[in-house]
Amino acid sequence: MNRVVRTALTPFDPRGRLSAPAFRHAVIRLLLTAAGLVCLSIWLASLGLRWPGILTFASTFLVVLAALAQTTRRLHDRDRTGWWLGLYVLMEGMTTLPLEDAVETDSVPVTALVVTMLGYFAWFCKETLLRPGTTGPNRYGPAPSDPTG
């Protein structure tokens, strides 16, 4: 029983490393899971099952937690701390700012902010999705392809 629980909680464990191909597969699985849960919640709500729809939609929070843990593991494979993910989340949050209201009066700072955000997003995607991990062990553990790890 303990092994079953440990296996079920593996996607939520940010410790260790995750190779780029494994991370890409995890991203695809998580995106499909989130999309499926959102579609299921909409379908349930359309049938008049409001609370099951709300609870199903709320379960997408678990997918977000798993995505954060898997991304942290991927950053560890690049020998980077998981705190880089915090900056990414901050930048994502900044995309909700009503910047179109400030463009007329403060176009230079708004443009600089948008260019900075886009640059960080591009770097983060390249860092997590495209670049290979560090070879051999690093401070976060052995390489993912290492049979002992």
Task: Describe this structure in a few short sentences.
By secondary structure, the protein is mainly alpha-helical. 68% of the residues lie in helices and 0% in strands.
Q: Beta-strand level of the residues, as a percent range? A: under 5%
Number of strands: 0
The biggest beta sheet reads: none
Q: How would you describe the shape? A: flat
* Elements, N to C (H/E): HHHHHHH
Using only C-alpha atoms, the radius of gyration works out to 19 Å
Level of helix content?
A: 55-70%
Q: End-to-end distance, in Å?
A: 23 Å
How many helices does DSSP assign?
7
Provide the structure class.
mainly alpha
Mean pLDDT: 89
How many discrete structural domains?
Answer: 1
**What are the low-pLDDT stretches, counting only 5+ consecutive residues below 50?**
none
Task: Give your account of this protein's structure.
- The chain is mostly helical and 149 residues long.
- The protein has one domain.
- 68% of the residues lie in helices and 0% in strands.
- α2 (20-46) packs antiparallel against α4.
- The longest helix is centred in the N-terminal third of the chain and has 27 residues, at 20-46.
- The chain is flat.
Give structural attributes.
7 helices; 149 residues; mainly alpha
How would you summarize the topology of this molecule?
Layout: H1 2-9, H2 20-46, H3 50-58, H4 60-77, H5 83-94, H6 99-102, H7 107-130
Helix pairs in contact: 2-3, 2-4, 5-7
